[in-house]
Design brief:
This protein is mainly α and 608 residues long. The protein is built from 20 helices and 21 strands. The chain is globular.
Length: 608
């Protein structure tokens, strides 16, 4: 109470204060000063925050960054990851990888693994610990488009292929939905005899994995729903066993392998069982055709007096092996293994497999040999069965290598332009002719280098490069820059002297060769050649409502055939898209593509 009068008196002037009071006031003032300002020098954290030269100061660190890096300043921290926990989370989904997930624009996968922790271990440098990404509780909705390649020019080219696929699909969807194929100029559906008399949505089933891989979500969903609700194999139609296997069984199995959607598995097994009666022959070799309603089988009337075709009986192994894998039913693999037994045991004086074989007597019907039509995919499936089995199907590999050695006399370099090609042989006559179909073998030879005997590795490398170059020449030497159905090596190499063989029906085999050669050699010319082919197709085959084959590749402007084949989206555009994608989009150590370009997973071992 006595203090207040003293305080008030002090306001009036200095002359009235006593000395004692002045000393007390001075002590109070000194204590106050020490308490208020001492913290600035004795509290370490506060002191550091005021120090502009502190290396741990986030403001100063931001200011010292290069101006172009300032927005990304947090990325300068040393990131510490819980590697084991993240590894466990990533291992939660062990399906074959088809692509890198899109982690957001401007970020890498590592930068996106978790959120930063506010604690730091040391002021210099600042360290943050990222919480590991937890394992997903449910599968993300498919499909997710692959990340763009680093090179913007390659991204532009891949996006062009994507737009071509959307254009082809739009025409089919608008004018031929549920039909097998599209007549884009007539704006109606189309069906070849291989599909029988029924509309089975061949383009839909054949395109499923392409739509998924390209990330075309709306198109994929509509296709998936059609398969679930409308795909019906209870038809009384006589269909091609070979074509239904590679397009329908292959397409459904690929869609299942990519998505794990059970509807594709169910449908694949269903149609697989519908094809089994085709093997009810005296030998076990399959018929060329089967009636999906009655199970009755028969061969083509035109096929060398009703014989079975090598490429047809030998091109079911990949699909049927995977059917056994996912169904647990050994019957599928047993059927195709028996076919392989018969073909392997048939007498081959010159080591060659001939194109026609009798399903009853198990003897060859003719002495015609070809790497193109009638023979092609038999050899392809020997090698790819070995790849599908992760190298455990030694018999398939041995049969393949022995067959290629037998073919060596038919792999010829022309005398004119010194172009390498695979000739055909009828009896003892060698024909200097090669089909567009045979251009697939450039990729096959390249794939075959890995795991080959030492005496064949260099041959396979040489053959793959020589054949793919010749097939490129068959395109480059035409007016349209698109190759013909067949080409010869006579007066002018790699050209179609017969006008009836100058047509192009949107085939993929030349581009298929470019894809494999790019993946396995990384020579940029293969991407360039693929881009030239894509531009030629866009210029000459695109019509208002899709894409059409052309009647004469040497006649410009072109005349269209008004058919958009189902394999155009399934194969030609898929190979082009993969050609301009990174290697982690359908990596070849995890997937093997069937002869219709449908990816099937490499299995740890072939089921028995």
């Amino acid at each position: 109470m006595a203090v207040l009068p003293i305080h008030r008196a002090s306001v009036g002037g200095r002359s009235g204060r006593h000395g004692k009071e002045k000393i007390i006031l001075l002590l109070i003032f000194i204590c106050f000063t020490v308490v208020c300002f001492g913290a600035l020098f004795f509290v370490p954290d506060f002191r550091d925050r005021l120090s502009v030269s502190s290396p741990g100061n986030p403001v100063q660190a931001f200011v010292n960054l290069h101006p172009q890096q300032q927005i990304g300043a947090p990325a300068q921290h040393v990131v510490k990851r819980d590697e084991e926990a993240i590894g466990n989370a990533e291992d939660g989904n062990n399906k074959p990888a088809t692509r890198n997930l899109d982690w957001g624009a401007g970020t890498t996968r590592k930068e996106h693994q978790g959120a930063t922790n506010s604690q730091t271990e040391k002021p210099t440098p600042a360290v943050v610990t990222l919480a590991p990404t937890p394992a997903p509780t449910k599968k993300l909705p498919p499909p997710a488009p692959p990340a763009n390649p680093v090179d913007p020019e390659i991204t532009m080219k891949r996006n062009t292929i994507l737009q071509m696929a959307k254009h082809a699909w739009k025409g089919y969807e608008q004018y031929a939905w549920g039909q097998n194929e599209l007549k884009p100029m007539s704006r109606v559906g189309h069906s070849a005899s291989i599909f029988g008399a029924s509309a089975m949505g061949a383009t839909i089933v054949d395109s499923l994995d392409t739509l998924y891989i390209m990330g075309l979500k709306d198109e994929y969903k509509k296709a998936r729903d059609w398969v679930a609700n409308h795909l019906d194999f209870n038809k009384g139609s006589q269909v091609s066993v070979f074509e239904i296997t590679i397009r329908f069984v292959g397409g459904l199995l690929s869609a299942y392998a990519l998505t794990k959607d059970e509807i594709f598995k169910v449908k694949a097994i269903e149609i697989g069982r519908k094809l089994l009666p085709a093997f009810n022959t005296a030998s076990g070799l399959s018929f060329a055709q089967v009636n999906l309603g009655t199970g009755a089988g028969r061969n083509w009337n035109w096929a060398s007096g009703g014989c079975s075709i090598l490429a047809e009986v030998g091109t079911m192994h990949l699909e049927f092996a995977y059917l056994t894998e996912i169904s647990g039913d050994p019957v599928f693999l047993q059927k195709v293994e028996k076919v392989r037994d018969i073909v392997q045991q048939t007498d081959r004086p010159d080591g060659l497999y001939y194109n026609y074989i009798n399903p009853n007597s198990k003897s060859w019907c003719t002495r015609h040999v070809s790497m193109g039509a009638l023979g092609d995919s038999f050899y392809e499936y020997l090698l790819k069965s070995y790849i599908q089995s992760n190298g455990t199907d030694k018999r398939a590999r041995k049969m393949y290598d022995e067959a290629m050695l037998a073919f060596e006399p038919l792999i010829i370099t022309s005398s004119g332009d010194h172009l390498m090609f695979v000739a055909e042989k009828r009896d003892r006559t060698v024909q200097n002719k090669m089909d567009h179909l045979a251009c697939f073998c450039a990729g096959m030879f390249a794939l075959g280098v890995k795991g080959a005997p030492d005496n064949l590795k260099e041959k396979y490398e040489k053959w793959s490069k020589g054949i793919v170059n010749t097939c490129h020449e068959s395109y480059d030497r035409t007016a349209s820059k698109i190759g013909p159905e067949s080409f010869y090596f006579d007066s002018r190499d790699a050209t179609a002297s017969n006008p009836k063989q100058r047509y192009y029906i949107l085939r993929p085999e030349v581009i298929e060769g470019y894809f494999y050669m790019w993946r396995l050699t990384k020579d940029p010319k293969y991407r360039q050649w693929g881009w030239e082919a894509a531009q030629a197709i866009e210029k000459n085959c695109r019509v208002e409502d899709g894409y059409s084959g052309i009647r004469d590749v040497n006649s410009v402007p072109v005349q269209h055939d008004d058919v958009q084949q189902s394999f155009f989206i399934a194969e030609t555009l898929k190979y082009l898209y993969l050609l301009f994608s990174d290697d982690d989009v359908i990596p070849l150590d995890k997937w093997v593509l069937n002869t219709e370009a449908h990816p099937l997973p490499v299995l740890r071992k072939i089921p028995t």
